## 1
Amino acid sequence: MGFRVVLVENVADIRVKLDNLVIRKEGKDIWLPIDDISILVIDNLKITLTARMLCTLAKHNVGVVLCDQEHLPMGYYSSYDNHSRMAKGIGYQINCSRGFYDSLWQQIVRYKITNQAKVLKRMQKDPKVIEALLVYAEEVQAGDPSNREAHAAKIYFNELMGTTFSRGNEDLLLNSGLDYGYAIFRSYLARLCVGYGLNSQLGIHHHNEYNRFNLVDDLMEPFRPFVDYYASSLLEGEEFFTMEHRHQLVNLLNHKILYKRKKMYLSNVMEEFVSDIAAYIGGKEKMLEFPDIDHYVEEEDEV
C-alpha cells in the first residue's frame, strides 16, 4: 500500500499520466507515483478533479479528502471494492456473534481509556483524574453496557482542555485541530479497511444505518488520544488554525511509535492493526496488540 499523504492547498492543476499524479504549480510539474500515495488531501476549492482521475485513484486504493472553505475535511472518497476476497471477508464479519463483537469492543474501549489516562499523565495533569480513568478502564464490560467510554470522555476532556471546553463548540481553536486530525486518521483507516477486505459499514459497536464508516469509527478509538495529545500541544497558546498546523497534523501519520517491539510510523501501525483485526475477525489471530501512547516517541519525518 501507499505511504505518502499528499496535501494540496494552493491552486494547482492536477492530472494523471502513466500511473503518476502530476501536480503543476507555478509552472513546475511535481510527479508522484500513484502507488506511493495513500491519501490525497484537497484543501482548495478551485482545484478540479476529473472522473478519470478519481477512477484511477480508486483503482490504486488512494483515498481523497475534500476540505471546505474553513480548511476542515468535509468529504471522503475511496474505492468501493478492490480486494480479491471481499465477499469472503464480509462473510466473516456477518458470521461473527454478538458476543464476539461485544468482547472486541470491550478491548477497544479499555485501551482507548487507558491511552487517555496516559495522555493526561504525559501532560502532568491531575493524578486523581488519571486514577479515575484507569478505574473506568477496568470497569468496562463486554459491549460496555454502562457506557464507561462516555463517562471517561467527560472527565478526560474537562481535565485536558478545561471545564469550559466543549467538543461541539466550533469557535474553539482546539476543536478545529481535533476535527482535522481525526478526519485524516479516519480517512487513512478507511482505505486500509478496504485494502484488507473489510466492509466499513459493518461496525463492531457503531451501527448507524446512514454511516458508511461504522467499522472505521470503531477502529479509530484507540488512536484518538494520539491526535488529542499532539493537537493540544501544537495549538497551545495559538490564536489561529494555520496552514502550518494543518501540515503538522497531516504529518502526525509519520510520527513514530514502538509497536510489536519495532519502531514504526504511526501509519504503519494502523496498517498492522487493521490487518490483525481482519485476521482476528476471520479467526486467524488470537491476540490483538493495541497502540500505546507511552510508546509514542514523537519523532517525525517530512511528508
Note: The mean pLDDT is 88.
## 2
Amino acid sequence: MVLELLKKRQLLTTDDATLTPLTGGVSCEIYLVEDGDRRFVVKRALSKLKVKQDWFANTNRNRYEQQYLSYVGALFPQWVPKVLAAFPKDEFFTMEFLPSEYRDWKKRLLAGERKVETAATIGKALGVIHRVSWHDLGTMRQFDSDENFEELRLSPYFISLVPLYPQLRTQIEQLCQRIRSNKHCLVHGDFSPKNILVAEQGIKIVDCEVAWYGDPCFDIAFTLHHLLLKLCHLGDSVLAEMADAFYSSYQQELGEGPMAAIEPQHLMELTLFMMLARLDGKSPVEYLSDSEKNEIRERVMIALANVPNSLDALIQGVSGYEYSTS
C-alpha cells in the first residue's frame, strides 16, 4: 500500500524499492525506503493508536507534523530532519534518513549516558522555538489544532484519570482549562526523550504530530516528567541536574518577557499530572516495576495536595532526593 502510494506520487526511481518498518511510537506507520542508492523515510498517521486501551485520533495530524518540521526547518535546519516531499491531502510525507549515530535520548539515558550538557542543548532549542513563535498570529493560524490536541493529549493523559481518581476531578478539569486557554507559542506536544535524537554533532527533534499553538508549559513539563520518572527509577542524581539544566537553559533562551507568562505552580502541577498519567493513563511507561509505580504514585498524590512552586521542591517531593537548583 505504501509502496503503491510512493509510486503514484512518482517518488521512486526503481522497480525494486523496499520498505523496512522503523520504530515510530504508537501513533504512526514509519518506514525506511531503500530505492537504489537512495534511502529516505516515509511516515503516515494511524487512525487507531497502538496501545492496549482504545485510542483513536484524526489522521490529519500528519499535516501538522509536516508543518512543524517545515516551520522549524526553515529557521533552524540543524534541529529537525529535512522534509523531502509533503502530501497533506494524502496524509503522508517523506524525510531524510538520519545517520546511525543519531540515537534517541531515552535509550541513551537508560543505557547510562547522562550528560548535563545534552539537557541544556535541548532546553535551549525548545526555548528558541517557543520564543520565535511567541504571540505570532501567522503561526497561531497555521497550528490551530485544538481538536487534535484534545484527542491526543488532554483526553488520554488527564481526563482519562478522572474515573480512577474522582477526588481529583475538579483539579484535573481546572488544569485542562488552563492549558486550553494559555495560547502563547508553537508547542511540539510530545517533547520527550524518545523524540529527540542525539549525536555528537547535535540533536534532531522528531515525531511532532501533536504540534499545536498553545501552552508552553506543556512542552517543558513533558521533558521534566520523563527525567523525573527516570530519576525515581534509576536513582542517579545527575538526572536532577539534567532537569535543572534543561529548564535553566530554556528560561535563558525564552527571555525575561515571555517567562513572565510561565507560572511556576502551573508548570509543577502539570508535571505531576503527567507523571500520574504515565502510571495510569492510556500511554504508561514500560520500564517501571509495580513497586516503583506504587511509590511514585504515593509521592505524586502527596505533592498534588500541596503543589510546589519550584523545580527543586518538585524534585525533592517526587524523588526524595534533596536537590537545590539555586
Note: The radius of gyration is 20 Å.
